[in-house]
Amino acid sequence: MLILLSTERRERKIAIVSESYALLFEPIRDKITKKLSCAIELIPKEDLQHHRFKRLSPHEVINKIYAVDFFCLNDNSWDFIELDHSGKPIAGDLNDLHEQQLSRHPCYDIRKLMSNGSFYYSNDFDLTSTLQNRGFKSKGSINEDTTEEEYMWNSFLMEEIIAYRDRLDSQTKQILDHEGFLTTVIRGFAETFITYIKRLKISLTVISKQSWKRAGTRFNARGIDDEGNVANFVETELIMYSNEYCYSFTQIRGSVPVFWEQDAAIMNAKVQITRSIEATQPAFDEHFAKLIHKYGPVNIINLLSTKSNEIELSRRYRSHLQKSEKLGFSKNVYLTEFDFHRETAQDGFRAAKNILPLIKDALLTEGYFCYDVQEDHIVSEQNGIFRTNCLDCLDRTNLVQQLMSHELFKIFLKDVELINPRANVDESDFIKKHNTLWADQGDQISQIYTGTNALKSSYSRKGKMSFSGALSDAKKSVSRMYINNFMDKNKQQNIDALLGRLPNQKPVRLYDPVGDYINEELSKLSSQYTTTSNMNLLIGTYNVNGMSKRADLSKWLFPIGNKFKPDIVVLGLQEVIEMSASAILNADNTKGSFWEYVVKDCLNQYDEQYILLRVEQMTSLVILFFVKSDKVKYVKRVEGSTKKTGFGGMTGNKGAVAIRFEYGSTSFCFVNAHFSAGNSNIDERANDYLSINKNISFARSRKILDNDSVFWFGDLNYRVTLANEAVRKELEMKKEGYIDRLLKYDQLTQEIDSGVIFHDYCEPALQFRPTYKFDFGTDIYDTSEKQRTPSWTDRIVYKGDNLHPLAYSSAPLTISDHRPVYAAYRTDVSIVNEEKKHELSEKIYQNFKIKEESADAPSMIGTDDDNEDIELEAYLEKKHSNSVSPKRVPVRNTPPPLPPSSHSSSTISLASLTKREPRNIPDLPTRENSFFSIAPTPPTSRTKLLSSPKSSLSSRANSNQGNSYGPEQSLSKKGGVPPLVISRPSSAKPKQDDQRKQILLEPEETKTEHVEVQGTTKETKKAAPVVPIKKMSLENVSIDEITRKVPPVIPKKKANLEKFKLSQAEDQKRG
């Protein structure tokens, strides 16, 4: 709905304009009484075209999303069904309930997430970019040059529709863009207050946008990832608008950019840094390189404490800055350390202002964006950014960011002479409104990350901390602990589902024969952009029995000397602490650190250097992950997980620690396990395996079996069931075949052969003597009173077609009552050159386009029978024998046609070729349920450049070049409940009644809160359904004001590579 004012002097009129009609108001004077009255008339919108109008409704309105709904294209089972609080249909709302009566709505969780009030969109301007980047007079919800893809939370929902849009010809694409079908959705905060500075009316707005690149809840998303994205990364902008000046100042916050974690189940949990300095530095440099390229110089404000467990993070932060060879410490990146807790310990939060003198020069140097509204030119631009962090980047960070915003805002007001330089304005209404905005913003960001409002918000609002405020903070702290332990897991899964990150999750696929043809041709050339190679891997397991004695581990890690130097080493240690009750309850993690250094010293004894990429410890279990320095660049997405099984899952003396990572495009998972002890506890060990296999979970809900290659190893505690005397006699006699004879009584061998556990796993040929139990320091089996039966308790099993065993044996180390075991493998891995792949895609497309243009008649949709594209037609006939190729209709001097439907098999021109991963060629769509998602859409980020002919200041280019890889995954739900997208193993036959795909639309009842950025009013109203806005034909009214433009978008997906199995070129080697 638009509100227009006639600018004609003779006739002043106001029009309220809808899509088709206008309600026109104009003054009228009675001819007899000469009194004025208001005439009202309902007219067609087209009748306004001969009048001059100026828009009165706000130019930049932000809409809060209060509710969304999902609809299925070919199944009405869930249409307009009222749901209860658990997502199940209310009885009586369905004529025929069937399975719905017992099931939840398949999209209920995502519906609930997107309706929690933290999502926003705008039809008037690019909500993802700052005012300085998009420009003062920018129009349209998406701008090709300024859109920031990392803040667009609807990226995955619209992935396929964007691909469809990008492959349209330029004329058709322009129609789609101008009609405003696509928009962007952010998650964060937006609010506007109207106030006055003296007599000048101003609007104050705060917009905060959280990045989705490393999105998640408090303890599920910490630190940095391999692409340089950090958790809780938020860009916050304060905007002041008046008829004289427009002002903005932008700040960012984000987690400490190193690899670290905390245990949610423990109060004041110790920070665990999970990757070495050498392995972290590339991701650290990448993070700051992006910030410098986008914003300019970065001023870091680190608020971590110099005591407790935060000090190690500060040390690591400072160390990375000093050791970086790419960033230019004290040139492009500056560090200010301010111990917030120490500074405010005595004088309260007022002492936080002590930071201002430390950063005053940086504030003045960095500056702010200012636009002179009356003179219509840029006065100044912000050159640089403040990056603030504490541990969670919430409470302390918000307070300090508010102080900086307050200080610079006053500097601006003095610079433009809106306030007296000596005036005390802290009690003014506009300052109170400013503080309230920051407090509301802090509460919202905290709600997103932790589930509660921010601490210290009482001080942010009132400038003082009351007793009730302190009591409220204590209550919030307790609530956070409960939410972190019992609710965040489900919230994280819902976030991952919205972003398309769940295992095997895929976007709803649109039928596109032209794209499929190009992708099929590209797949034939896969050898030109895919490199297959071998990677040598060494896995070891050792129960050290609580020993922390230095020893030479060469016989275990280099069993044949430097003739075999693996690329990757993964070691599992058990019982790194004593197994007493007190030691288990008060686990000493320094014992794990001891073994880190011992192993690292041994691995680096030759000319090759190994880097520790990950340590995962749980009480007495430790897993160490080392990578050869020249191979680190291929390793991405290193994650860890643990599961306790001791004493019914309460203690970590038994259980497992696991890690996963990706080497190129091949994923690996390693599980170091310690099962229940005892000769007869076979069932308990099976239960341990099942519990670990079920509960070990990585980011994005990945499980152990969601990886290409899987290894289980450790002290599995399976025994030999033969009599102790018979076993010892066989071992003493060493007759030919004695190992094989004893293995017939091995419990693990029997369990695997019977399919009870480790189904489809393999164990290399075992030809070494039992590894348990020895007298300390000797090769003599147990001579104690118990005289335990010698057994192969320490084992390594694997699963994966790309794995080739080279050696499997034990090592003669005598520092424990166990012997260490190792296994060497050669693995087949594949690495994709994305740039080369894209070049080939463009080449295929250009060749196709040349053939299309060679046809005699120009066309938009097809060819004549005599001039049709033979190759494409042959492809279509081959894949879809029943499809009919449409004929080309000549189009000359006619208006642009409507966009072709996504299921058209015509040879439409592709305007540009995206970097999207080629999809498999589909069969013709069948009548099975298929959910189709339409939602606000993400454009990719672009380099931003601002310049003004009237400004004497130079412009600075900004860009965000972070890559977005949308994994091919799907929302899945077992049973008959209709999921968003169902993914099944290749062997499973899909049932048509079990597959449903839903449309994401704003319902007609959606409430919309309008937050005015450049206007004088704030209103809350119910919005109409989201529908394309038709262009108006009005004199003196810019079309850009009522339509939206969508730039070309290139969403990227992680490549789903074909695996190449190499023939084994050499015999198995045994150390």
From TrEMBL:
The keyword Protein transport applies. It is found in: Cytoplasm. Keywords: Cytoplasm, Endocytosis, Hydrolase, Protein transport, Transport. GO terms for biological process: endocytosis; phosphatidylinositol dephosphorylation; protein transport. It holds the Pfam family Syja_N. SUPFAM superfamilies: DNase I-like. Its main location: cytoplasm. This is phosphoinositide 5-phosphatase. The gene is INP52.
